[in-house]
C-alpha cells in the first residue's frame, strides 16, 4: 500500500448500519499530497521554494506513483506545490477507492441515482488491515515522541491530522486524548523522523540531512494543505467553485462481521 491507500483506508469508518468516508473534499487533496510525500521519501523529488523538482526520473514500483512522477517531469515549467495541489482532480478519491478494491481491502457497489449521478456504497472493509494501520498510527501518537517511528508513519500521522481524519481514527469520547496527542504532535517540532537515530555514528551528517529533508517535506505539505483548506472553508477565491459535493451515498450497509469493536466502530450515524 502507498501512503494514499493507507490514508483512504483510515478514512473509511465502519459503523453499525453503514460505512462512510470521512473528510469529504479535504481527503482528495491529502491523497494528492501523499503521492508527493511517497516520492519525496523515496528520493525521487524535492519540494523547492518555488517548484517541485524531479531528482530521479527512474520508474518506481507502484504504477500510480510512477505516473505521477512522469507527469511531474513532463510538466513545463515545473509546477509549484500550491499549483499541483490545487489542480487535484475531483475523481482522485474514487480512483483510490478502486485501488483498495483491487487490493481486496473494500467491497463497493456502484449505482446511479434518479438524476443519473454515480454513487458508491461501501459494503465492507478489511477491518484487520485497518486495525494494523491504526496500530502504526498509535506507535507515533501514543509514544509522545516521533523518534521511534518510521518516516512514512510520521507522514501518515501528519496527513491524518491535516485532512481532519483524527475523529475517524480516534472516535468519540474515548478518542479525545489521542486526538489531542495527534494535534500536539503535528503542531510542534516533534515530527522528527527516526533516520538519524537509526544510522551509524559515522553517518551522523548524512542522517541529519535526511532527517531535516523528511521533516521539511512533511511540513511543506501540511502547510500548503492548511492554506488550501482555509481557502475553501472560508469561501476564499480559487477553490470554492471546484468543490465536489461528493458521490458517496448515505446507504451502504456494513455487512455481516464488519461492525465489531475497536477504533473504527463509532456507532455514530453522522460519520
**Amino- and carboxy-terminal Cα gap:** 24 Å
Query: What percentage of the residues does DSSP assign to strands (E)?
Result: 5-15%
Helix count? 11
Q: From the helix content, strand content and strand pairing, which structural class follows? A: mainly alpha
Order of helices and strands: HEEHEEHHHEEHHHHHH
Low-pLDDT regions: 189-212, 236-262, 264-271
Largest β-sheet summary:
2 strands, antiparallel
Fraction in helix: 40-55%
| Integer-rounded radius of gyration | 19 Å
Strand order in the sheet with the most strands: 1-2
Mean pLDDT: 77
From the spread of the alpha carbons, the general shape counts as globular
Per DSSP E runs of 2 or more residues, the count of β-strands stands at: 6
Describe the protein's architecture and organization.
- Helix content is 49%, strand content 10%.
- The protein is mainly alpha-helical.
- A two-stranded antiparallel sheet has the order 1-2.
- A hairpin with a 4-residue loop joins β3 and β4 (52-54).
- The longest helix has 30 residues, at 204-233.
- The two termini are 24 Å apart.
- 38% of the residues are buried.
Amino acid at each position: 500500500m502507498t501512503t494514499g491507500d493507507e490514508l483512504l483506508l483510515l478514512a473509511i469508518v465502519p459503523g453499525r448500519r453503514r460505512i462512510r468516508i470521512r473528510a469529504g473534499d479535504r481527503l482528495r487533496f491529502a491523497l494528492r499530497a501523499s503521492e508527493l510525500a511517497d516520492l519525496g521519501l523515496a528520493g525521487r523529488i524535492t519540494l523547492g521554494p518555488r517548484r517541485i523538482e524531479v531528482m530521479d526520473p527512474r520508474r518506481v514500483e507502484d504504477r500510480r506513483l510512477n505516473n505521477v512522477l512522469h507527469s511531474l517531469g513532463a510538466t513545463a515549467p515545473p509546477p509549484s506545490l500550491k499549483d499541483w495541489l490545487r489542480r487535484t482532480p475531483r475523481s482522485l478519491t474514487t480512483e483510490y477507492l478502486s485501488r483498495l478494491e483491487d487490493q481486496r481491502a473494500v467491497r463497493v457497489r456502484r449505482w446511479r441515482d434518479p438524476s443519473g449521478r454515480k454513487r458508491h456504497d461501501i459494503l465492507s472493509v478489511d477491518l484487520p488491515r485497518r486495525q494494523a494501520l491504526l496500530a502504526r498510527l498509535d506507535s507515533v501518537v501514543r509514544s509522545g515522541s516521533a523518534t521511534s517511528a518510521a518516516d512514512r508513519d510520521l507522514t501518515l500521522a501528519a496527513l491524518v491530522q491535516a485532512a481532519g481524519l483524527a475523529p475517524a481514527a480516534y472516535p468519540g469520547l474515548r478518542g479525545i486524548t489521542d486526538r489531542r496527542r495527534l494535534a500536539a504532535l503535528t503542531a510542534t517540532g516533534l515530527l522528527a523522523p527516526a533516520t538519524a537515530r537509526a544510522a551509524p555514528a559515522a553517518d551522523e551528517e548524512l542522517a541529519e540531512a535526511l532527517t531535516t529533508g523528511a521533516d521539511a517535506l512533511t511540513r511543506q505539505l501540511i502547510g500548503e494543505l492548511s492554506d488550501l483548506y482555509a481557502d475553501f472553508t472560508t469561501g476564499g477565491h480559487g477553490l470554492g467553485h471546484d468543490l465536489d459535493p461528493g458521490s458517496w451515498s448515505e446507504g451502504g450497509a456494513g455487512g455481516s462481521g464488519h461492525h465489531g469493536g475497536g477504533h473504527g466502530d463509532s456507532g455514530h450515524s453522522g460519520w
